[in-house]
Amino acid sequence: MEEAKHFINNRWVAPSVGETIPVVDPSDGQIFAQIARGTAADIDRAVTAARAAYEGPWGAMSAAERGRILARLSMLIGACHEEIAQIEARDTGKPLKQARADATGIARYFEFYAGAADKLHGETLPYQSGFTVLTIREPHGVTGHIVPWNYPLQIFGRSVGAALATGNACVAKPAEDACLSLLRIAELAAEAGLPEGALNIVTGYGHEAGAALARHPGIDHISFTGSPATGAAVTKMAADNHIPVTLELGGKSPQIVFADADFDAALPVLVAAIVQNAGQTCSAGSRVLIERAAYEPLMERLAQAFAALKVGPSTLDLDCGPLISAKQQQRVWDFLSDAQHDGIAMAAQGEVVAEAPEAGFYQAPTLLRDVPPTHRLAREEVFGPVLAAMPFDDEADALRLANGTDYGLVAGIWTRDGARQMRLARRVRSGQVFINNYGAGGGIELPFGGVKHSGHGREKGFEALYGFTTLKTIAIKHG
Ligand code: NAD
């Protein structure tokens, strides 16, 4: 991997402006690498390369051969698993075990989509007599992928894996805060036999390289994961070129716990769903709604669990690592100072260990109680290890609270009552519902995406293949 370069046409390419962006280790706040500062000229070069691949060897390749290349890539990632996990841990600050899980996740995405590549097919349709009508699924062409910093490996894997499997040529713009692991993956993709131009990575700032990608007229589809505001900006840019957009914009996902739930099973999951990746998870379970009869006993157990959590550098591999940046840390502090100002009680807080460097971006996991449903802590995405707890009176109240935000990504329902499980699962407004479990970010095979401000379109699972293709209808008159 060559420092401070883009990966275009299977080669390392210096940035056209000759400038770099420093990369900071969130665990100690120190600069440890440089990435290339991409501009519109670099994006243009990458899109041109992708177009040539799509109209050339990559576009001509059979689905089975595409699948074989993706399978080889998955195996190469497996062979470099520890190296990739180490890069990811340093770049994002996440504990090593989480980075290892992410490295396993991306290998699994390419494995899944390798197997799916030659399983996607169209249909024959009944029509007028003397006709045969069929549908075929075709790739969009050149797809753009704007990737955030919280799970670079996983989010790149789910989006680029499905796009390549269906025959698109890709240009990815990872986040300026964390992109090193993806440059290594691109290098491995070339080694796996991906033809020149099929996968290109341009690093750089969002307003510069990201915006240049979103508005490039040579892009046929764009997938974006990140904040609702940037998602809206990307959509407006894409609208000028009339291209489809897949958006995944985070959430304020509720975990609804009834008094009859198995608390022993629920407790570790409720904690992990907000502490994982220091709460910087789009599908984090960031609200816990608890039936009033069980509120105090469960809050007591949650408080004990939060107080026992340890936070430190990625290398110590504790419960929680630092936040990604000083900017993100300030954002979380602002939410917590609002909570304090508005009299919201802190039920418990974990501990930042003494070995954590002063200049790292640490935040102790925080449990807040009796958060008013109208408060921004109950409605907005903190994107930090902050869990907002609130009681509810009955099923209708639980549903009203669960659906009472602008978001709708994931919901967790904890109850032993089977009829209630299904009633709520059908009425809660979210893209995924977990009953007596919760999969923050998990489930390669499971279609994933939101409703309302959480976005639209689905990634992961077989469903993603439909999003990365367009349907063509062919009507043949044969008499
Ligand atoms: P962001 O949405 O601005 O950045 C996400 C990606 O978009 C990055 O690759 C970035 O470079 C790119 N980008 C930024 N501006 C762009 C533009 N004008 N055109 C095209 N691409 C652009 O998110 P952020 O500023 O890094 O984080 C702010 C908040 O967003 C976080 O606190 C969190 O609440 C939310 N967020 C959500 C997710 C998620 O997984 N849903 C991921 C990251 C951030």
From TrEMBL:
SUPFAM superfamilies: ALDH-like. Pfam families: Aldedh (PF00171). The active site is at 248. Belongs to the aldehyde dehydrogenase family. GO terms for molecular function: oxidoreductase activity, acting on the aldehyde or oxo group of donors, NAD or NADP as acceptor. This is Aldehyde Dehydrogenase. Keywords: Oxidoreductase. Residues 12-474 form the Aldehyde dehydrogenase domain. It comes from the Bacteria. Gene3D superfamilies: Aldehyde Dehydrogenase, Chain A, domain 1, Aldehyde Dehydrogenase, Chain A, domain 2.
